Amino acid sequence: MNTDETVAGHGPGERAHPWWRQKPVLATAVALLVAVGVLVGIAVHSAGQYFVFAPGTAPLVTTSSNCKPQGGELALPDGTPCVRLVVPRSKAHAVSGRLLMVDVEVSQASPVDWAEYELGLLGSQRQFVSVVAYAGDTPTSELGCQDTQQMVSANQDAAMAAFRALHYPVKEKKLGAQIEAVLSGTPAWNAGIKCNDVITAVDGKPVDSATQFVTVLRRLSPGTTVTLTDHRDGAKTAKQVKVRLTTPPPGLASRVYLGVAVQTMVKPELPFHVSVNAGGIGGPSAGLAFTLAILDTLTAGELTGGHTVAATGTITPDGQVGPVGGVQQKTIAVERAGAQVFFVPAAEYSQAKLVASKRLHVVPVSTLQQALRVLKDRYGGHLPQ
Hints:
Layout: H1 19-47, E1 50-55, E2 60-62, E3 68-70, E4 73-75, E5 82-86, E6 98-100, E7 104-108, H2 111-118, E8 127-130, H3 131-135, H4 143-165, E9 171-182, H5 187-191, E10 198-202, E11 205-206, H6 210-218, E12 225-231, E13 239-244, E14 260-269, E15 275-277, H7 287-298, E16 308-311, E17 314-315, E18 321-322, H8 327-336, E19 341-345, H9 349-355, E20 361-365, H10 368-379
Parallel strand pairs: 2-5, 6-16, 16-19, 19-20
Antiparallel strand pairs: 1-7, 1-8, 3-4, 5-15, 9-10, 9-14, 10-11, 10-12, 12-13, 17-18
Helix pairs in contact: 1-2, 4-7, 8-9
């Protein structure tokens, strides 16, 4: 008798496994699939909680009309990344060195990034930053608007700081309370107020600054409905928006709650027009670099002493330099671009030094004047007064 079982799909000599012997194999396969699915789900969820910071570019700040859009960014004909400084032709001087700004490439972490991070394979050039650390309470949908706002402010503040360093009189005209961010689910969010709107009145009473706007609201009580004169995206034509104020969340020291972050929108009254076109780059960190480039162009063009100088740091109209974030990635980027000197906010000096080679002189500064002194004393830079 032939002991081989002949079953449909199996010829003589092929032994079919009974169902009770196949079940453990199927169960194992299902378990593996479930485990893989769980791991993928964890990776997707975990990655969504982080951004990845990576070295970006170090664009040259230039007055050249050849600095034009290429592939979504500004570049010179040879491919060098650039930002375009615009000043009256009669005021511009040829410069002897190069001044670089620098940015960080920020992207939402992917599941692959998260896996590399967990396995220690992310590398020293990339950094995981939590959404909370990067955005705070600001919805990620608002970050693009904030970046644009901050670049506009950096542009204006750099021009004011440069003119004041050259002893030009500069005045500022306050235009209202500009919305920096609207938190989701708040009274402002529900009323349709958006980032970059400008509020110029509350219940018909004019407000020209963030401080005045907040002061007016603090006098009111939860449950009060106010009418805001809202210039959508800064437009000249305004609309009236009704908002019902609520009780603040726990821990917020205020009588009422609207759910916005605001800043004073200011229009500088400059002696003549100066601006910087940074293309798609956003954020406030180019303030110091823009200021140095404006000074170099408006004077004899000898501010860098012929060196390649990079800078990062926010700037205020009175020349105070503030921290920016992503300094390690920026240090790598400026070295790649050939910088010899890199000015960084004093509070972030140690981070830059961690990744800088001996070829790059990292200089901590807290004010514009400190940077100017270093350029003069160490690099032969000249700034006519």
